[in-house]
Design a protein that fits this description.
mainly alpha; 4 helices
Length: about 120
């Protein structure tokens, strides 16, 4: 991992909670507001990134993944005009939810999690 990995015993509950919320906030997309899955983690990361390297790491991971998922979702919506997009969109939604839940659990346990197939827009 690129970041300095802190010892899990040194992380306090507050850091774990904010790290977890960076990922969990992406599920706000279920409210139907476009790009809230990007905006919510971005706001949390911007407000809390200077408090802890752990929160900074998870915030970057979450925002990068949500931007990637949003781009892929837009492509799938465009591809739905030729039928292939709908199955791909369903796969993206399911995979995204699984990844977000996994990352949320890892952050809550004080562990680092790196999303696979994620473009690093924020380094």
């Amino acid at each position: 991992m690129e970041q300095i990995i802190e010892n899990r015993s040194e992380l306090d509950k507050n850091e774990k909670t904010w790290g977890m919320l960076c990922h969990l906030s992406a599920l706000t997309i279920i409210f139907g507001i476009p790009f809230l899955n990007v905006v919510a983690p971005l706001v949390i990361w911007l407000l809390k990134k200077n408090e802890s390297a752990f929160i900074d790491y998870h915030g970057k991971q979450s925002v990068n993944f949500q931007i990637t998922v949003s781009i892929i979702t837009l492509v799938c919506v465009l591809l739905s005009m030729i039928v292939i997009g709908l199955p791909l969109l369903i796969a993206v939604i399911v995979a995204s939810a699984v990844y977000v839940i996994t990352a949320t659990i890892k952050a809550n346990n004080g562990e680092y999690f790196a999303y696979k197939f994620c473009v690093k827009f924020i380094k």
